[in-house]
Amino acid sequence: MKILMLTRLYFPHIGGVEKHVEEVSKELIKLGHEITILTLQHDSKLPTIEQGNGIKIIRLPYSENKFQIWKHFYAQRSLIKEVDIIHIHDVFFWFFPFRLRYPFKPVYITCHGYEGNNPPAIGSIIQRKISEILFNGSICVGAFMKKWYYAKPDFVIYGATEKIKAVNSKSKDAIYLGRLSKDAGIMIYLNALKILKNKKVDLSLDIYGDGPQLKQAKAFVKKHQLKVKFHGFIKNAAKYIPSYKYAFVSRYLGILEAMIAKKYIFAVYNNQIKKDYLTCHPQIDNIFIAKDSSILTKQILTVIKNSKLSKDKLLKSYQWAKAQTWAKIAQQYLKLWKI
Q1: Residue 115 above 90 pLDDT?
Q2: What burial letters (b/e) apply to 292-305, b meaning 16+ CB within 10 Å?
Q3: DSSP 8-state secondary structure symbol assigned to residue 97
Q4: Residue 165 resides in a domain
Q5: Integer Cα distance of 86 and 96 in angstroms
Q6: Do 129 and 40 share a structural domain?
Q7: Is 149 in the same domain as 20?
Q8: What is this structure's pTM?
Q9: Are 244 and 175 in contact (CB under 8 A)?
Q10: Could you tell me if 151 and 138 are in contact, meaning their C-beta atoms sit under 8 angstroms apart?
């Protein structure tokens, strides 16, 4: 089958959606399918057409204007005729103008996340509902979308990962992976370290990531003299997880990567949608979830003082995580497409 994937950004741009599209595409190629990725040219140095790992990449001129995107997509409309299936990742509006012209083309969608710290805007909800009506089937990453977007997906998934090869066997305290932002809870984690220090528990933390709260986080660490190192954004930072006891992660991919490495996972939220995002996870009983630094501190102390009691969480989450492979996700896509 010839399959066209639509995604706003793609490799070499780094992100959860980008990795998802790439890994699923690789698995589909192994099964004999042909994959074309239509995306935006986020870097002017990148070629507009590229072939790599069996995947054909076509990059449209970068734009935030939907009319410009529709114009450039129209210039590539021959792709719609050539492929058997179109699968859209989040960018639902890209295909809206073409649906009437190609009413019988099988088109599917994957909803990967949510917008910002606040409840979704009515426009976002309407757009997703329209896509469910216009297209042939859908996948949601996380069951929380059923509540917040009134979604009725054919499948709910939580991502996939492969076993991580350790780059350093030396055991350290904690690792933070993700954006340094309010939504990711960086300041909740740092405040918990301050509370722990006041309780004579001087936990160290290595931070891999960047974001709008970097300056604030560095100032907080300096003020309270915390044992924190900022490593900045590093590609494939998950490879460092095996070197730590605890993982401070609040996104599905990071949670999976920590589970497969058998680490204690501490996830935080500061709004209702993020709470539902975390608490809908199939492994909620094996993740420490906190709404503030006080609760997070108590959870960390519980693990430190009684690690034997918590090791059962590591084993159960590991057993679940190792079954969440990209090959399994690819099979769910094929079921959705009725292939």
Answers
A1: no
A2: ebeebbebbeebbe
A3: G
A4: no
A5: 13
A6: yes
A7: yes
A8: 0.91
A9: yes
A10: yes
**What number is the average pLDDT over the span 114-139?**
89
Q: Are residues 194 and 144 in the same domain?
A: no
Residue 125: which residues within 8 A CB-CB, separation 6 or more?
Answer: 148, 149, 150
Query: Would you say how long the chain is, in residues?
Result: 339
Query: Are 79 and 191 in a shared domain?
Result: no
The domain total for the chain is 2
Query: 203 and 193 in contact (C-beta within 8 Å)?
Result: yes
3-state helix, strand, coil in the chain (%, to 5): 45, 20, 35
Residue 115 falls inside a structural domain: yes
**Cβ count near 84 (within 10 Å):** 14
Mean pLDDT of 88-93: 95
Residue 317 within any structural domain of the chain: yes
215 C-beta neighbours (distance < 10 Å), count? 9
How far is Cα 189 from Cα 209, in angstroms, rounded to an integer? 14
Do 134 and 267 belong to one domain?
A: no
Let me know whether 152 and 209 are in one domain: no
Residues 176 and 228 in one domain: yes
**pLDDT given at position 250:** 92
Q: Which domain holds residue 183?
A: 172-321
Instruction: Based on the fold, state whether residues 204 and 152 are members of the same structural domain.
Output: no
CB 77 within 8 A of CB 58: no
Whole-Å CA distances, 225 to 1, 30, 193, 203, 265: 58, 51, 10, 12, 24
Does residue 169 have a pLDDT over 60? no
Q: What is the CA radius of gyration of the chain?
A: 21
CATH code for the domain of 204: 3.40.50.2000
Q: What is the largest CA-CA distance in the chain?
A: 67
Q: Which residues pair with 110 in a beta bridge?
A: 89, 139
pLDDT on residue 183: 87
* Kind plus residue range of the DSSP H or E element containing 264: strand 264-268
Token couple for 122: 């009515």
**What's the pLDDT tens digit per position in 204-218?**
999 999 999 999 999
**Quick check: is 164 in a domain?**
no
| 79: Cβ contacts below 8 Å, ≥ 6 apart | 4, 36, 38, 58
Question: Is the model's pLDDT at 87 over the cut of 80?
Answer: yes
